[in-house]
Amino acid sequence: MGGVRLIPIGVGEAFSARHYTSCLALGSGNDWLLIDCPHPLRKMLREATLTAKLPEPLDIGHFTATAVTHLHADHCCGLEDYGYFSYFALGRRAKLLMHPESSARLWDGLLAAGMESVQARPDEPPARKALSDYFELIDLDTTRPVACGPFSIECRRTIHAVPTYAMRITVAGRVLGFSADTAFDPGLIDWLAESDLIVHEATSMAHSGVHTPYEKLAALPDEIRSRMRLTHLPDDFDVGSSVIEPLREGKIYEV
Ligand SMILES: [Zn+2]
User: Fold this and answer.
1) How far lies 217's CA from each of 28, 50, 177, 231, 255, in Å?
2) Residue ranges of the chain with pLDDT lower than 70?
3) How many whole angstroms from 98 Cα to the centroid of ligand 1?
4) What is the pTM of this model?
5) Where are the domains of the chain?
6) Secondary structure E strands in the chain
7) What is the pLDDT of residue 120?
8) What pLDDT score was predicted for residue 2?
9) What residues contact residue 90 under an 8 Å CB cut-off, 6+ apart?
10) For the segment 113-124, what is each residue's pLDDT rounded down to a tens digit?
C-alpha cells in the first residue's frame, strides 16, 4: 500500500476497559514510526495490524524509532519491554525520541528499577546497565525539526500534569499532528492546524482537568474538524454522535 498511513494501535484513555491505551503507528513505504509505547505493545501491534490486514503483522523490529510524548504509564509503560526486546531479541539499541524535559526522569524515575541489573546466568553476578545500553535517546527540540530516518519531528509543550510534548511529524511530504495529552489550548490547535491529519485527545466534560473536553473540539471551525480525528477516549465517549471521527484500532487512515 502506498502513501503515508496511520494505524491506531491503542485509542483509549488510562482507565479504559474497552481499548488499549495511547499508541499510533505511522508508516511510509516500509518505514514505520511508533508514537507512544504502552504495554502490552507486541500484542497490541499484532491485533491492530491483523485487523488492518497488513501482509505481515507489525512488530517492534519494524520500527525506525519510537517517539514518546510523556511519562504517564498509559503512554510509556511498554518502554521496558521495547528496550529489552530490542536488546535481547533484536540485538540492537532502540531509537527513542523525546524532549529532554520529558525524558529527564525516564531512567531514574521509571526504567532503572526493572532494567539496571541483568544477570545472564544464576552463578554469575548481575551486570549493571544504563539507559544507553538499551536506548539511543534522541532529543527533540522545540526550535527545530529533528530527523530520524525518513521522519522529521517537531514538538511543542502542552498543558498537562507532567512535561508533555505534542508533535508534528513529516514524512514523504505529508504531516501528522498529534496533540498528546493536553488541556484545551487554542495555541496548540493553531500549531497542529498546519498538519494534513490531526489526531487530538478528547475526553468527556465530567473528567476534563488536564485533558480536552470534546465540546471544545466540536466547536472548532469545520475546516479543522474535517482533518481531525479523536483518540484517548474514555469508555463513556459517545462515538455515534461525535461530529469528529474517533480513531479505531486497526483501521488504516491516509495522512
Ligand atoms: Zn497524560
Assistant:
1) 28, 31, 15, 12, 20
2) 1-2, 205-207
3) 15
4) 0.96
5) 4-254
6) 4-10, 23-28, 31-35, 63-67, 94-98, 117-118, 127-128, 135-139, 146-148, 151-157, 165-171, 174-178, 197-201, 228-231, 245-246, 253-254
7) 86
8) 64
9) 60, 61
10) 999 999 989 999
DSSP codes joined into one string, 124-188: SPPEE--HHHHEEEEE-BTTB-EEETTEEEEEEE-SSSS--EEEEEEETTEEEEE--S-S--HHH
**In angstroms, what is the span from residue 164 Cα to ligand 1's centroid?**
8
> How many angstroms is it from 230 CA to the middle of ligand 1?
15
CA of 22 to the centre of ligand 1 (A): 9
CATH code for the domain defined by 4-254: 3.60.15.10
φ, ψ at 217 (rounded to 5°): -75, -35
Cα 39 off chain centre by = 12
Residue 125 Cα to ligand 1 middle (Å): 38
9 CA distance to ligand 1 middle (Å) = 17
The x, y and z cell numbers of residue 181, run together, are: 495529552
Burial class of residue 183 (count of CB atoms within 10 Å of its CB; 0-12, 13-18, 19+): middle
